[in-house]
């Protein structure tokens, strides 16, 4: 992969990066520091983060969500969610992912991100199928360095 490779950050990566008590925090921070390509999230990530922060009783969940994305060094990419939903329906049967996971992977594909960074074991376990269907390489902690070498 080259320095212009787009890396889509799953919501769990953004959370692990911002939450110093997360067991994956140090590894995620280190891995994010090694990304030479663009880091992207979508508005779906913002919705998920705001929901998590609201349920946790944190104040100003939307502002905290925006701050979390900024701290991960990511940009929020716009995408047509009608297109996302149309494409998700086409891939749902073959990928067999949970709804939000499917939507994130499809968004990544539409944005042209060739790398999907996640801590989600279900997505990681289906990485070969995702590669085959959408030409996206799924990576988890300790795998990014090998991608960008």
How does this structure look, described?
With 149 residues, this protein is α/β, with parallel strands linked by helices. The protein has one domain: Rossmann fold. It has nine helices and five strands. It has helices spanning 11-18, 25-33, 43-55, 61-71, 81-95, 99-111, 121-125, 127-134, 144-147, and strands at residues 6-9, 38-42, 75-77, 115-117, 137-139. It has a five-stranded parallel β-sheet. Helix 3 (43-55) crosses helix 4. The chain starts with 5 loop residues before the first strand and ends with a helix. The model has no long low-confidence stretch (mean pLDDT 91).
Question: What are the key terms here?
Answer:
Rossmann fold, 9 helices, 5-stranded parallel sheet, 12% strand, 149 residues, alpha/beta, 5 strands, single chain
Topology (elements, then pairings):
Blueprint: E1 6-9, H1 11-18, H2 25-33, E2 38-42, H3 43-55, H4 61-71, E3 75-77, H5 81-95, H6 99-111, E4 115-117, H7 121-125, H8 127-134, E5 137-139, H9 144-147
Parallel strand pairs: 1-2, 1-4, 2-3, 4-5
Helix pairs in contact: 1-2, 3-4, 5-6
Briefly say what this structure is.
With 149 residues, the chain is an alpha/beta fold. Helix content is 58%, strand content 12%. It has a single domain (6-147), classed as 5'-nuclease (Rossmann fold, 3-Layer(aba) Sandwich), CATH 3.40.50.
